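[SOLVED] Need 3D model of a two-part complex

Original post:
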Amino acid sequence: MEESKFIEIAEKAKAASKKLAVLPTNVKDKALVNIAQSLNENSEYIFEANKKDLDAAKFLVESGELSKSVFNRLKLDENKMRDMVQGILDISNLEEPIGKVLLKRQLDEGLVLTKISCPIGVLGIIFEARPDVISQISALAIKSSNAVILKGGKEAINTNKAIMKVIQDALDKTEGFPKDALSQIFSRDDVNSMLKMDKYVDLIIPRGGNSLVKFIKENTKIPVLGHADGVCHIFIDESADKNKAIKIVIDAKTQYPSACNSVETLLVHKDFQYREELLSSLENAGVKIVSNPNEWHKEYSDKILAYKLVDSLDEAIEHINEFSSGHTDAIVTENNKNAEIFLSTVDSAGVYHNASTRFADGFRYGFGAEVGISTNKTHARGPVGIEGLTIYKYTLQGQGDIVKDYVEGIKKFNHKDL
Amino acid sequence: MEESKFIEIAEKAKAASKKLAVLPTNVKDKALVNIAQSLNENSEYIFEANKKDLDAAKFLVESGELSKSVFNRLKLDENKMRDMVQGILDISNLEEPIGKVLLKRQLDEGLVLTKISCPIGVLGIIFEARPDVISQISALAIKSSNAVILKGGKEAINTNKAIMKVIQDALDKTEGFPKDALSQIFSRDDVNSMLKMDKYVDLIIPRGGNSLVKFIKENTKIPVLGHADGVCHIFIDESADKNKAIKIVIDAKTQYPSACNSVETLLVHKDFQYREELLSSLENAGVKIVSNPNEWHKEYSDKILAYKLVDSLDEAIEHINEFSSGHTDAIVTENNKNAEIFLSTVDSAGVYHNASTRFADGFRYGFGAEVGISTNKTHARGPVGIEGLTIYKYTLQGQGDIVKDYVEGIKKFNHKDL
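Solution:
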């Protein structure tokens, strides 16, 4: 696509975002219900498109160009479709996130300040092979009154086009819903165009592997919400309960090794008595232990675990604050004072005591749906729910009030929360 | 300064930030009281340093290299010093912003999630000639448990060094306060080093003119909190009250023309009856009206006002959403429906009805102190108080809980807010 053509898409998205910002809740919810229904009714059409992508992907798996796990994520079936539909209906049932009064304050008699939640504007969402992400992200964008420009993985191009067509048809049928609220781009060039468009695009959300996220973070001035690495740690303290330690580390490493919240580094206090038992349990669970590897920043995404013996809680915390990606880190201990120090001192989005790092997830946290997990230290951190797609503005209602009166002392502020 | 030397400063600031994160409220407040007292006791020392800067600046004003207004902002006197001291004491009296429980939720029996406010980490603050900013920003950083690296304007170098010495001495005397929480850099090269250090610096806050802020935004991957332009608008609707219109526009343009929240563009509905009277009142107040200028993006920062006649509320809103810098825009109208449309549709940090744009200010909003005004659409928007220097993390307290039990249906989440 020519850059000028992309600008046209972006301009239309911006214009649509202004209409979305004032769209009544019932129109948004009706749009979501229509999408859910449309997906249900057109599932065969989508499965056919998905079959084309799967056929093409099979060759790539055979030639080793595509991993088996990417292939599995690409595949849609009745179960995934049911989850997609239910996910959209769940989002329609979430509380209206826009127009919430966050603060109402009288500055003086008749002069009222209101802090009110509003959408961010235009979101640029870039994701890899999972086509079920499209419906979830679209639904979150609609519910939060944001326009969205989507770029899916090229392996899922037919599936994504089919899903978007079904969604678009459902939106066209929804009375009062603005056109151009959702659009789709397809090439790497389009992504590069988008990354430059800070005039139109307010937030970029990449959902995918490290290299995708790193590339995006390094090539845009637009705020990026997400995480590149998921280098999570578990520290087994001297007083850790043996069974909890074994259960938690095995869960955090083997339950879904390629997830960003699975553990990559195990730190064990030198005086933890059951060290040998812990390590042999891990080996029995198929985990390969790498003692003192050359680099501590590595995300294995496999049943491989870096391992280090530490002298103290302090050494563990120092190691984590140096090498953690700030995603999720855990301590296993029966010593509550040590747990408290760990929770307050480790500077990560999630800090856990006696629980598996795998709990770091918007659904498990009860957010209903998640945009992704952020390791940023501004705006939104950790699993990000729909709230992360909102910001606020201040309205001020006066009666002809001017600042001069306050500067000259004719009037005085009389701040009072209403 | 060599880059390696800067890295040393940044590393120490990062280390200090970890200690600040867990510093008890009373130590932080004691530090602030000590600073206030120290500034009071050493005001003569600071005035002497300030005199050096003023003497040097005088030459620059005479040769036209420095504006009279910058010179005035550079000058410290008893009044400004009293305000500085009071400002620090006010900040010490603010509510503790760290460790606030923002959400407490049971995910299941014995598995408790807590969302808790925490500092951002290391702030890089870059500001121009006003030396009184140093004490305010330092106090806000201390209260919010952030470390800070400060770069002041070169015109104020002696004053800034003296103030920092007084502050540092006060901190050294405060038992338990971490060294290296505050540091100062001096050259443009140091700023360039800092802008590259996203490993150490978590947020950059520039306080100064457009070109400073633009330069910084274009040259760093670190989040930047602030605003480059303040192109504010006032729209006089058909039904506007004549007196309110005249009062508000004159206040917004003349009360402090170089402020970022002063109005730059006046839009008047073609059917507003008192147009001629409004324009002549403005001219009588010394305002130069520029009808339909070549560019609508301009921040005059002077008693100059761009002027356009519009056919409708919609045209006014469209103009504002196209050309506003997203700072603060106002409508003057007696038509509440139009006011409502304006407040909900104009996409700016502040949107006002029948009030001067000059109210956009943290003190006027009752925030106690402000970091600056943000036109960002993520993290913090509008006047930013101490809350804008905080983020949150999630702690999870378990009993050996693992995700496998939930994936396999052995256990079920039971989300309940506590």
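Edit: The domain at 232-359 of chain A is CATH 3.40.309.10 (Aldehyde Dehydrogenase; Chain A, domain 2).
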